[in-house]
Structure formats: C-alpha cells, structure tokens
Design a protein that fits this description.
Helix content is 63%, strand content 2%. The strands form three sheets. Strands 1-2 form a two-stranded antiparallel ribbon. A two-stranded antiparallel ribbon has the order 3-4. The protein has a two-stranded antiparallel sheet with strand order 5-6. A hairpin with a 3-residue loop joins strand 5 and strand 6. Helix 2 runs parallel beside helix 7 (203-229), helix 18 (450-461) runs parallel beside helix 20 (488-504) and helix 29 runs antiparallel to helix 30 (654-673). Mean pLDDT is 82; it is low at 38-88, 125-152, 354-360 and 739-744.
Length: 924
C-alpha cells in the first residue's frame, strides 16, 4: 500500500469528461456549408490606374548568361541600333538575335577550321599550320593531328570566333578614332569571308558573326549621316529630323556623305561583299530617295548572280533582315526570293551531285544548311499578312490558279512547302486541308521528307476545330497515305500528328486500325531508339484521352505495342498507366489489379529507376500508391496474398514496406470489424507485419510501425503478440542513433511523440505477473538514462509521461480499454492488491528522483524554468497533496521563479493551480 506521504489522486474520468465538455446544441446548417447570402459574392474591382509594380514573370533578365562566347557577341550587338527608331525595331531586333543564337547552336563551330587564301585576315597573329591543298572533306577537319601532318592553314574554332570578335573591336575602335577608311576596309574583308563556303558546317556561325559586324557598321554610318543632316550649311544646329523624314529634308552635305559611302561600296570588285555592305547601309538610302525599296529590288536581282547556292541563300536571309529596318509591309522582294529558292532547289535536286567549291558534299547537308534561311524568310512574309492577302501570296508563289483557291497541281520544292504550311494562318490551313494534301502528294523530292509535311499538316489541323466533312476526308486520305508506308519510323511520325484528331472525333475503328498497323510493323521490324520517342508520344496521348483503364485494356493492339517497347520510353508509358489506374481511388477489379501489378513489375525492373534512392523516385511512389489503393473487399485472404506478392516483387522500394505494413494492419482491423471472428487470419496479418518491419532501415519508422501493429494485436486479443511487438519497439529505440538512416538527422520531437504514444498504449496492456506490472516503464527509464542523444528536455517529458502512466494504472477504472473493455486490463487483474500499489509507488519515487535531478542538469535557465513548472503540474495532477508532494512542488516552483520573470503567465497559472489543489484538499 502507498505510504501516507505519497498517494495517487483518484480520478473519475467519465465525470471529468462531462465537466470539461463544451455545451452542444444542434445547428440549423452544416458548419462548412456556404450561407445563401454569400453563395455568389460580388467582388468590387477598383482600378486606381497605378501599375508601378514589378512583375517578375515579365521582367527581362539582364543577368542571363549565354553559355557560349559566340552567343555573347551577338547578344551584345543587339544594343546597337537606330536610336531614333529603337521602339519600332525592338521586337524585330530581338527576333533576329534569337534567330542567330539558335542558328549557331544548331550548327556549332568545328574544333578546327581550315582557312582559304581569301581568309588570311582570320589567321593574322594566330598560330597556323601549313597545308598543301584545301580540297578535303569537312569530316576530315575534325582531325587536328592529320592537319598537322599534312600541313595547311588551320586554326581552332575558338580562335576563329575570337578573331571575328577582335575584328569587330578593331572596326569600332577605328571608327571612333575618325579612321573610317580603316573601318570600311576591315568591314570589306569581313564581308569577303562570306565568299568562302569551304567550311560549310561552320558557315552559319560565320554568317551570324559577320552580319553582326555589318549591322554595327550600318548603324554607325546611319548615325554619322543623320548627325550631318541635323546641321545647317553653316554648321548651325537645326532641329532634329522627324522620324518620317523625306529626302528633301536632308541637307546637301549629308547627301554628299551618303553618296560617298555608296560610291565606295559600289567600287568593291567582288559581288557578294558589295551586296552585303549595301544591305547593311540599306536604311541610308532614305537620305537620298523616298522609295528605298526600289534599290532593294535591284539588290534582289544582283543576288541571282551568286553562283554558290549556300552563299546566295544566306545573302537572301540577310536581305530579309535588312528589309525589316525599312518598316515596310511590301513583301514583293521576299516572294521573289522564295521563287528564286524554288529554282535553286530544283537544280540541286536534279543534279547528280552537289559541287560545292572544292568540296563534294551530300545534298542533304547543303539543304539542311539552307533550311533556316527559308524558314526565316517565310516567317517574314506571313508576319503581317491578313487572311485576304494570303491568297495573293499563294498566287505569287505559283501555288494557286486564282485568287481564292490553293491548287495541288503546281510543283513545289518539298522544303519550301513545309515552311509555307508552317506559317499559313490556321484558318487557311483548316479550310484548305485537302488542297494542301494534294500539294504534299505532288511535292515529293529529296529536299525534305514527305512524311514530315504530312506530320506538320496534322499538327496544324489540331490548332483549331475543322468541319466534320473536311476532317473525315482528310483522315481517309491520311490513312491511305500511311498504309503505303512500310517503315515504322515514317508511319509513327505521321500517326503522332493525327492521333489527337482521331480521338477528338471518336474515330474508334480507324484508331484500332492504326494501332494494329503499328503493332504489325513493330513486331516485324523492331523499334529503334528514335522510333521509341514518337511511339511514347502516341501512347501518352491515348492515355491522356481515356478516363478509365478498362478502355485501354480493351485496345488489344495497345497491349501488344506496350510489350514491344523497352527502356525509359516504356517506363514513362507505364507510369502514365499507373497514374491513370490510381486516379479514381480504390481498385477492386481483379483484372485491373493484375494488369497494374505487371505494369509495376516492369517499372520496378527498369535499371533507370531501380537505383534511385531519394524521395524524387516517382515510379516508386506510384507503385506504393497503387498497393495502398487495392481493395479485395471481403476476400481478406486474397488481399493478404497480394501484399505478400508485392513484398517479394518490390522489395527494393524502402517506403513501400511501410505501405505494406499499414495495409496489413488495416486488413486486420477490417477482419475484426467483420461479423465473424478471423483469429487465425489476424495472426497472419500480425506475422506479416512482424516480418516486414525489421527490413525498414529508418528506426523511427520501425518504432511507429511496431506500436501500430502492437495496438492492432491488442485489439485482436493477441496479448502475447502485442508484448513481443512492444519489446521490439523498445529495442528499436535502444539502437536508435543520432543519424537515423544514411542521411536523415534524428527527429527529437518525433521520437518523443512516439515514446509518449508507447506509454499511452501501455495503459491498455495487461501487466505480466512474472516480470511485474512496471517492467516496461522500468526498461524505458533505464533506456532514457543510457542514451547520450537524449536531451534533458526529452527526459523530463518522458519522466512526466511515466508518472502519468503510473497514476492512470493506480485507478479503479482505467481511462480506456482495448476492444471497449472486452479485454481484461490491469484494473480488473490487479487493482486492490497491495503488492500492485507498492510496485507503482516504488517506481514512482524512483522516477520523481530522476525527474528532479534531470531538471537541474538543464543549462538554459529559461528551459529549466519551463521544465520545472511542467513537472510541477504533472506531479500535482497525479498525487493527493501531502507534505512530501508539496515540498517537491514548492521546490520546483522556486526553480521556476529563479529562472523566469515573476509575471510570466506559465508561472502564475502554475501557482494558481497549486493553491486551488491545496484549498480543495483542506476542504475535503
């Protein structure tokens, strides 16, 4: 029996619950429902007209770093422009800079560059190698050792780029030093570099850097002439020229200077540099003529005199760029360029081989280098063209017989047709889809793959909804076309573009036919890496369209295709399938469960994901979600068998094991709630969890799962199982280290919460007469004192939890029981036995000693004061006030006073609580 100096306070938990419960009254409406008066709230928008805020999504990033030096040079040059018209040409300038950057990224500079005799300016002051001849293929330029052996003038690609930057700096320096003759001479030498197409693959980068210099020279000449135009004959300052000035507004001195520049350029012997420099100065014609476009038409004719197809193509590209500086909507020159391109390409296509300077190259390479020029010019043509003007453009290009129709009987180079369809307004594409199909069919040449034109048309048709009759006619024609493709690659490229149209128009029969075509070709030829990407796109679109997995399984060709896939593409499709399967909640269909299980196995076995250990492993998370959503309803045995199969199949997914334990415990609870008792099945679930938990690496998760499983065992009346699980929980706590797992620091608050949860569970656990009812608290106290990572704060909270546990075990009626009192607790087994109360009292004295000692070990005064008051409240709530208890509480309050301010709310409330208890005991 407890001594008179220390006696547990008797508690009536039912009465206390009722006394502290808030008054309840039935509500008229659901608390989360929206009041009828606020069902449609009106928000009054006030616009004060102020917009001085900075939108980070619209702010230009001035600190953006371009990865390559050549891109930096082009970007820097964009700042130089016609200052009086900067607001008008800003967008065009940005587009041009972006275009040149993408051009250089697509065709990067080679490691070494072989320079011709006309490129000596590039090797000035640079280390070079002698070479006997220059008629060597471009591929051989990638071998520096071979050049060193044979000799020749070779510089590295980086030196080539650096020399162009140096030339730009020299031209700029000479100009500002009033040495404009040198600036012009150097600019001519740079323009002559564009005559040398022997470097072929590097030509686009050379073009971007050289035209950057041309633009800089043109801007400087414009500014100089404009400055002269702002001055009178006697040098007096006139008012600034209006932006829309005419030639008669310009003084004779400015005109003379302008004529002088054009005369110098006209004296250049070589045609190509003469054209480039006159294009660079094209806006300066405004000082001499009111119709500068007439001069541009002359330059278009001059470009026809360039024999080299690559040089002429890029010269036309620069002309299209310079045209934007005139702010004219006249596209006649551009249309002439496109028609010239058609003639040039036809000659290339019909020629037996492409003779390119001293090098013989594949036609495809030359056309691919010309491709960006066609793209940019076509974009300039349709930039400001209305739908009414589109018909006129098509007639000018020879693609229409009248002003309202697009005809397919006129031949056109396939590559030109491709970029025409790319730039046509979507309304025109939709209304003229059949005519465009005829054009594609009649334009089948080596300049561009015909299947890519069919593919582009499909993507353009997806931009807007077409009439049903047009869609049916187009899709019938497309099916006829792709049926003729024997190769899988062409078949997939076209199907990928039209699959959305098949889905949106519910063409199920055609869709199955197409999937069967993919399946048969893939089964016969196999699937290459490039084809996998396109096939992945098609299957992902199918999965995005369908809402339920049953519709996908019904597509038999789909499953056959999926089996033929491999690698990351197959895994991406599998993830989409898993995501689709778990999207609608619980999965109960056995067929769907088995299908998703096989998909999960394939995803788990992928080497790309199997070695990913961090939390970003999306496949593992999808598999875990799938396992948690499976529900066999009343077929408990089947569900447990499924969990066992998952543990065997996905053993490497560490967080799946936690899901498996949770699912097993939930399954046991469902069996308990069932009308029939499934004792053997519950034991199987507990055994499954007991075997699975030790394989989890994180000890904190082990501790939590052991406690969860112990509670389930206790609810099922399996006391011996719960004892073993509690022992395992204590052992996992004993071996807990400062670092829980390989990377995760220990969560002190989480551990403390789990230990407190363990003490709450021990209230329901019947004591073992052999080891004593306080065996678990004793073991935990010893464990707490032996762990170096336990802080005084954690120890105090745990000791307070032990005191509360012992106080609860001393009551006649426990605060709660397992299975609503159906299972025997300590109150029924031991209450009233003197040895039981003595054991509780001895244990409590030992804990109080440890509690007081631990509080004094806390170095922080504020923390020590808070811990003292927390212990005082716990002790006062657990024991009847006596001399010994009052002495302990008084000492704790004095500790709190010495560490806290006298007006601290926690201190004042604790003192008030103690006074209330003392008065209550005196009254009793």
């Amino acid at each position: 029996m407890l001594s008179n100096s220390m006696e547990f306070r008797p508690r009536d938990y039912t009465a206390e619950k009722q006394a502290h419960a808030l008054h309840r009254s039935r509500a008229d409406d659901h608390p989360l429902s929206v009041p009828s008066s606020l069902a449609h709230p009106q928000v009054e928008v006030v616009d004060d007209g102020e917009t001085d805020y900075l939108d980070p999504l619209r702010r230009s990033d001035n600190n953006a770093v371009v990865s390559r030096e050549v891109s930096e040079g082009v970007e820097d040059s964009s700042a130089l422009g016609l200052s009086s018209e900067a607001s008008l040409i800003g967008n065009s300038s940005k587009e041009w800079v972006s275009f040149k950057r993408s051009l250089m990224q697509r065709f990067p500079v080679s490691k070494t560059v072989l320079t011709s005799s006309m490129s000596n300016v590039m090797v000035k002051g640079r280390k070079t190698y002698d070479k006997s001849s220059t008629n060597m293929r471009l591929e051989e330029l990638e071998d520096p050792e071979k050049f060193a052996e044979e000799g020749g003038k070779v510089i590295t690609g980086q030196e080539y780029v650096s020399r162009l930057h140096d030339l730009k700096a020299e031209i700029n320096h000479s100009w500002h030093a009033d040495d404009r003759v040198t600036s012009l001479k150097l600019s001519i030498r740079v323009a002559k570099l564009l005559m040398d197409t022997s470097i072929l693959q590097c030509y686009p980068t050379l073009f971007a850097l050289a035209t950057d210099i041309m633009d800089m020279l043109g801007d400087m000449v414009w500014e100089r002439i404009k400055l002269k135009a702002d001055l009178a004959e006697d040098g007096a300052k006139l008012c600034l020229l209006p932006e829309n000035f005419v030639a008669r507004d310009i003084c004779s001195d400015a005109k003379e200077t302008c004529n002088n520049w054009f005369s110098k350029i006209g004296a250049i012997r070589e045609l190509l540099p003469r054209i480039y420099l006159e294009l660079a100065l094209l806006p300066c014609w405004c000082f001499l003529h009111d119709r500068p476009l007439d001069c541009l038409q002359r330059l278009v004719m001059m470009i026809r005199g360039l024999a080299d197809p690559l040089a002429s193509a890029y010269c036309r590209l620069y002309m299209a760029h310079c045209l934007t500086k005139l702010h004219s909507n006249d596209i006649g020159c551009l249309l002439t360029c496109v028609n010239d391109f058609k003639i040039l390409l036809m000659r290339l296509i019909l020629a037996k081989e492409t003779v390119h300077g001293n090098l013989t190259e594949n036609k495809r390479l030359l056309i691919s280098l010309m491709e960006p020029t066609i793209d940019y010019i076509m974009k300039c043509i349709f930039k400001n063209v209305s739908e009414r003007q589109v018909n006129d453009v098509l007639v000018e290009l020879g693609l229409g017989s009248n002003q309202v129709e697009l005809r397919g009987r006129f031949p056109c180079a396939s590559i030109i047709l491709h970029y025409l369809v790319k730039q046509l307004p979507s309304q025109v594409v939709s209304s003229s889809a059949m005519e465009i199909l005829q054009l594609i069919e009649s334009s089948n040449d080596a300049s561009y793959d015909q299947c890519l034109n069919y593919r582009l048309l499909g993507f353009r048709l997806c931009e807007r909804k077409s009439e049903t009759g047009t869609v049916n006619a187009v899709m019938d024609k497309v099916i006829q076309v792709i049926t003729q493709y024997e190769g899988l690659d062409e078949y997939l490229k076209v199907v990928d573009a039209y699959v959305d149209i098949f889905l949106k128009n519910h063409m199920d029969d055609q869709l199955k036919s197409i999937l069967e075509g993919i399946s048969s070709r893939a089964g016969t030829q196999g699937i290459s890496e490039g084809e996998l990407t396109t096939l992945q796109s098609i299957l992902v679109k199918l999965l995005s369209y369908y809402k339920v997995l049953e519709d996908i399984i019904a597509l038999t060709p789909f499953l056959k295709i999926l089996d033929l896939m491999y690698g990351s593409s197959q895994s991406i499709v599998n993830m989409q399938i898993l995501d689709m399967g778990i999207r609608n909640g619980c999965i109960r269909d056995p067929t769907i469960i088995q299908f998703l299980f096989e998909i999960s196995q394939a995803l788990h076995d992928d080497e790309i994901y199997v070695n990913v250990k961090d939390d970003s492993n999306q496949p593992a998370r999808l598999i875990s979600s799938f396992v948690s959503l499976v529900d066999y309803r009343a077929e408990f045995e089947s569900h447990l068998t499924f969990l066992i199969e998952c543990r065997a199949a996905f053993g490497s997914i560490h967080w799946l094991k936690e899901t498996l334990v949770h699912s097993s415990n939930c399954l046991a609870i469902k069996a308990l709630k069932d009308g029939n008792r499934h004792v053997s099945f519950i034991k199987s679930c507990i055994a499954f969890s007991e075997v699975t938990i030790p394989s989890i690496s994180a000890q904190t998760k082990q501790l939590n799962l052991y406690l969860e499983t112990a509670e389930v065992a206790l609810l099922g009346g399996l006391v011996s199982h719960s004892d073993g699980l509690i022992d395992s929980a204590i052992n996992s706590l004993q071996f807990l280290e400062v670092m829980d797992g390989p990377r995760t620091p220990i969560d002190a608050d989480g551990i403390l919460s789990l230990v407190q949860k363990l003490f709450s569970l021990l209230v329901m656990v019947p004591g073992n007469p052999e080891y004593g009812v306080t065996s678990y608290p004793k073991n935990l106290v010893s464990l707490v004192n032996s762990q170096p990572w336990m802080t005084p704060r954690m120890r105090v909270k745990i000791f307070c939890a032990v005191v509360s546990l012992l106080a609860a075990l001393s009551q006649r009626d426990l605060p709660y029981h397992a299975d609503k009192g159906m299972r025997l607790g300590n109150d029924m087994l031991f209450f009233g036995h003197s040895s039981y109360l003595c054991e509780l009292a001895l244990m409590c004295k030992f804990v109080l000693q440890n509690l007081v000692t631990t509080i004094q070990q806390e170095p922080s005064k504020a923390a020590r004061g808070s811990m003292a008051l927390e212990a005082c409240n716990c002790i006062a709530s657990s024991f009847i006030p006596s001399q010994e208890i009052s002495s302990i509480c008084s000492n704790l309050i004095e500790t709190g006073k010495s560490c806290m301010d006298s007006s601290h709310p926690y201190l004042l409330s604790t003192i008030k609580f103690m006074d209330h208890l003392l008065h209550s005991s005196v009254a009793v």
